[in-house]
Amino acid sequence: MTSDELAQLRGMLAAAPVDFSIPALEVRAMFDGMIATFPVDESYSFVEKTIGGVSGLWLDAPRKSSSVLLYIHGGAMLVGNTFGFRGLSGNLAQASGVNMFSIDYRLAPEHKFPAALDDCHAAYEGLLADGYKAENIVVAGDSAGGNLALSLLLKIKATGKPQPAGAVLLSPWADLTHSGATMKSKGDVDNSLSHKGLQSGADQYLGGASASDPLASPLFGDYSGVAPMLIEVGSEEILLADSTRLAAVAGEAKVDVTLHVWPEMPHDWSLFSFMLSEGRDMIAEVGTWVSARVAK
Amino acid sequence: MTSDELAQLRGMLAAAPVDFSIPALEVRAMFDGMIATFPVDESYSFVEKTIGGVSGLWLDAPRKSSSVLLYIHGGAMLVGNTFGFRGLSGNLAQASGVNMFSIDYRLAPEHKFPAALDDCHAAYEGLLADGYKAENIVVAGDSAGGNLALSLLLKIKATGKPQPAGAVLLSPWADLTHSGATMKSKGDVDNSLSHKGLQSGADQYLGGASASDPLASPLFGDYSGVAPMLIEVGSEEILLADSTRLAAVAGEAKVDVTLHVWPEMPHDWSLFSFMLSEGRDMIAEVGTWVSARVAK
């Protein structure tokens, strides 16, 4: 049905591959430049805000809402910003009927693990301090942002504070040791990410810390008592096994887990929803899931 | 929220454990006697039908529909019948807004592999011969019926006939070699099934055939090109890893797979929807998934 759209996206990804193994400043210029051009719904009015000491973009819900999506963008821990991801974060929040706060967490290599996670946690605590109830907060992230969202659940658990109402993980990068079987089996079909590029991101983020630390590779965390999860992943991703293993691990720990594997989809395809109907379909599915879990 | 309901169900399961390792005629009398007492919506009018040479129960859709759910009941390949499962099959079909045909396939030990699968396939072919389009058929099954529904997809693929619109797998028993990690890790909390009981069912069904045959253990099948799947499983099941591994295998083969792991739920909990709200919630979720995939 959408084979033309998909072929166009695959062509675009193949023509301008993002190589995370080149110097971060270069890949940042290239990647951030690309996503800054992505069309965004003109009705969205983003405002700059600082919550919990973390700066980011805020978007009000379509109708007044007491709930909020805390959004954590992707980019291999090295690149990306709330401006370039405002289309994706805005679409997810509007489909969910909730407010949205997307954060500019500190990036590697300038800031190493756990600086980014500390920023995510500070923003979550800031939302609580501002009066948002944990039960009306959903955390969400794509790719590296999915890693941080999962690590945030584990960090919140460690502090004894209440879990959010849910977590939405889009093509999450959950294992920085890269031990998943699809790291190899999907290597030829994934034209967004490479093992080499991810390794570069992981090395620059970790700065010598262990990739086996559950707060760095949340796949290895203990999920008992954490929030319900929605995991969305494409079949053509080297990170596919991060999602399938996460569903197994979290499910065994009695987490309410929904995993949806989308055939033929590349990494993080909802970032391209302006040109791909499956991106819009996935965003609608996220909206249904989130809005069923929080107050209006 | 439903802890009282769940405690009541767990108590019931623990008080009358179904031991599939005793002679089949005895466990059949016990199991079939138990499920025959389960309350069923009195508005459902089942009729006996034979389609493709396979007898079973038919239920018309609430409103006229050109689609049908082919239902395959569970019972370790040894027990169960369409009468005892008419509540579950009827609820699933009515929630989906489609007609339903639930089949009395041949049981082991009297009839060995692949007799049951042959009956499922004959019923599918019979529905096609009766004018139902493959794109308007959804196959569904619980437990051993989930095994047969998956094997049916593989068998349909082998014949080159069109796949159905989807497959709904409720706590499927996908691996008769019992190699899943939860076979042991959930052994203490699963008070519906035991490794020993399943081994007895598998031995009597296989009658010497290899448990590694993908038509006997469909976890080991090649899923490329098969129908979209919805997998529903509880966190407290020794069969949990059958579902999580199935999602990984089918997803890697580019199947549209949705897996939902329900915390605290025991094996096949929607069979007990008359006493458990999560059973009704799961049936509603199945209905939404099926009705989005077939014509009215």
UniProtKB/TrEMBL annotation, chains A, B:
Residues 69-269 form the Alpha/beta hydrolase fold-3 domain. Gene3D superfamilies: alpha/beta hydrolase. Belongs to the 'GDXG' lipolytic enzyme family. It comes from freshwater metagenome. InterPro entries: AB_hydrolase_3 (IPR013094), AB_hydrolase_fold (IPR029058), GDXG_lipolytic_enzyme (IPR050300), Lipase_GDXG_put_SER_AS (IPR033140). It holds the Pfam family Abhydrolase_3. Keywords: Hydrolase. One of its GO terms (molecular function) is triacylglycerol lipase activity. This is Unannotated protein. PROSITE patterns: LIPASE_GDXG_SER.
